[in-house]
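Please, structure for the following, as tokens.
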Amino acid sequence: MTGSRGARHGPGHGAAPRPERPVRPGPAWWLVALLSGAIALYALGHLVFRERVFVDALAASFKARPWGIYPHAFFGMIAITLGPLQFLPTAGMPRGARHRTLGKIYVGAAMMTGVTGLYMAAWAHGGRIAEVGFTGMALAILATTALAWKHAVSRDFPAHRRWMIRSYAVLFSAVTLRLWLPVVVVLHAGAFTPSYRWVAWLSWIPNVLWAEWYVRKRPHPAALN
């Protein structure tokens, strides 16, 4: 009888801690996961089918730099797939060993995506405007991911989550580029080159602005709902 009364007293008195209660992800998470998964499959297509899936205007540059484009597709595929898993909502933070392990893989893959992207940006189709745009994107991936890692190591987890949101927002340019490109091509009456110059900037600048708005609106973001 004494044990039964003690159990009803809740935490303390030797009661075991309650396990973390999972929370269902919201529509925004599912949308991000779906779009990211589609782009991951697109990147996988580059690794499997190689030159057969290259866009005609970009094919010559990609063929000339296989050690740039294929690692870029490989590491980008990993990073964009893992990102939504790190933003799965839960009742409490942190989420333990799984989160730390996947986070380390994400950081490594995102950094390699930025490095290979920086290399490929120097020969981006569309000339100097596109080169500068894609260079800025690659540097933004490297900077935001490095800061996210720095704050994780120093155990400043609120700052870590804010910089991870910024990092993934820039990485999500792999999705938004493919969403913007057909729209801009239509606006340019089917002309690919000027459209590509636009998406070199449109693919990531609005993402950065959204991420900044989001982290300021929610000073302690824990998940994408």
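The radius of gyration is 21 Å. The chain has one domain: 23-217.
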